[in-house]
Amino acid sequence: MLKIIKSERLTAAIDTHGAELRSVRDEKGNEFMWEANPDIWGNSAPIMFPICGGLKDDKYRYEGKEYTLLKHGFARMCDFETESVSENAVTMLFKSNEATKENYPFDFEFRVFFGIEGNTLNITYEVKNLSDGVMYFSIGGHEAYATPEGIEEYDIVFDKKETLDAFALEGNILSYNKTNIITDSNVLSLNDDYFKVDALVFKELASKSCTLVHRNGTRRVKVEYSDFNQLLFWHKHLAKYICIEPWNGTADCSDANGNIEDKYAIIKLPEKERYSASHSITFSI
Length: 285
Hints:
With 285 residues, the protein is mostly beta strands. The chain has one helix and 21 strands.
């Protein structure tokens, strides 16, 4: 079921299945999100929770017991309740249940807030730990922005100069092999060849925002991600979209020991505490 929110500048559609952003259109009808063509990639903005990326053999250990958890976790495949909705905002809620606890033994409430102000969409993830003890998780966005002319007509412009080394993915696992992408520059010109082997994974950046810019036009999408530490770019080879993904967490590193509490960049939320992280997306043509 789609929930529609709007301002005078934007209209957004969010699916209660996965709390997935499906469409963002401006007042002239211009669509900014990938069409989720199932013949290419049938998503537009799946949410990564309670892990980002993959695990070694899709498994991890917690308190001596082994669990199976598939790549990117289960939130993207679950139905959310609509906790509240107004003209320009909606809150969606997913609660742990017996099915989730088979693969993830924590009690929690997971909320996703969407709100529009002018031509900006604000998204906040909130996790409440209802367990007796620390809850371990990662979280992230995976929004796919339409690039109708193809990604090679687009640049990503960072708010600061960067020297960026992308960490190589080998299957689901993040290796320590790196490839330099840019040096002392704030402009990354998109090249389809970057994505023949999957995603560009950056563990650390100076910038806390970046803008997808059509080089010869006016289409712009600015993503501000001050609450996130990792950033990924991904698309399927030759497809006309680019994902800009702010994450707190990564796939398992090649030397991961399998214990969830030792996982690189894992969030450790004390019992009965809340965690939140926000990013905002500004659209213009």
